[in-house]
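Checklist before submission:
- one chain only
- standard amino acids only
- sequence pasted in full

Submission:
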Amino acid sequence: MKSRECDSFDKLVDLIVADRLKDSLSGPCLKYCLSLEGSKVLSSAELAALADGKYRGNTVLSSREDVSRSNITRPQF
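Returned file contents:
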């Protein structure tokens, strides 16, 4: 948990959701998301946005800078 910057219950839940999301992604989409994630830990909302809106089949529609500049907000429950 320390290596993934998880220091609260909300971050733990988000980490679990992100890990489950990664398990459900196709191979190429997972590789794309992991390449953008690098050493930074993406939230589940950021990961979902990448998988849903930035990747289409074999064509990548955005760059690493698009991820760092995106204003993705976490859904409120």
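Reviewer check: Residues 26-66 form one domain.
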